Amino acid sequence: MIHRTAKFGRNVELGEYVVIEAGVKIGAGCRIGHGVVIRAGARIGANCRIDDYAVLGKLPTRGKISALTQEKPLPPLSVGAGCKIGAHAVIYRGARLGKDCLIADHAQVREDVTIGDATIVGRAAYVENKVRVGSRVKIESHAYLCALSEVGDGCFIAPGVIFTNDNFMARTKERFKYHKGPTLKKGARVGAHVTLLPGVVLHEDAVAAAGAVVTKDVPARTIVAGCPAKFFRSVPEAQLLKNQ
Q1: What is the mean pLDDT of the chain?
Q2: How many CB atoms lie within 10 A of CB 193?
Q3: How many CB atoms are located within 10 Å of the residue 222 CB?
Q4: Cα-flanking dihedrals φ and ψ of residue 177, to 5°?
Q5: Taking the mean position of all CA atoms in its chain, how far away is CA 4?
Q6: CATH of the domain at 65
C-alpha cells in the first residue's frame, strides 16, 4: 500500500508488501526491502537502504506506569542520506539520524533521539528515548542505552553494555529529581558487559574495562576496572582519539 501523497526521488526500488503512509518523502536511489513499513511524514534521504520488515516512524506506546514515555506531538522521523537500516529494525517517529549511519538488524531507536553522521547501532542494540549520540560512534550488539543519556563523538560502546538512569529503581517520587543517564564525553570507550550507574560521566578518552561497574565519574584519559570500578592506569597515548 502506497499513499497517493507519498513522494519518491528517481530510481527508488520497492520490494513486495511495502506500506508507505501519507506525506512520506523518499530520496533518489533508495532501496526498500520486502514488508517495510514507513509511517506518515517520514523523511528518507537519498541512497538509503532499508532491509526487509523494518518499521520507520513508529509512534511510541505509553504504558500506564511509564515514567518517561509521553503522548505528545512528535516531528516526523528524519533519516539522512546514505543510511542503512537492517532487517526488522524499528526507528520511532521523532528520531533524527545523520547521514551514513548503520542501524543493524533488530536494533531499535526511540523517539526524541538524535544520532550523528556515520554512527553504527549494532544488531539488537537499543537506544531509548531522549538520548543524544554523536558522530562516528560505535554501539555494538545488544548494548542498552537508557533514556536521558549522552554519547559524544568518536565513542565506543562494546557488546552487552548497560546504561542505567534510576538510583531509586522506580520507588518514590524523589527519583525524578535525579533521573539521569550516563554521559560519555568525546572519545570515551566502554568494554564488554560494563554497567554504568545513573549520572556517571566518562570524560574525554576515558575507558571502563570489560565487566566494570562504574559508580563514579571517570577522569579524562583514565582506565578504570573492577566492581566497583577503580583506577587501573592511564590510557596509552597511541590510543587517544586525536591519534587515530
Answers
A1: 95
A2: 16
A3: 18
A4: -70, -25
A5: 32
A6: 2.160.10.10
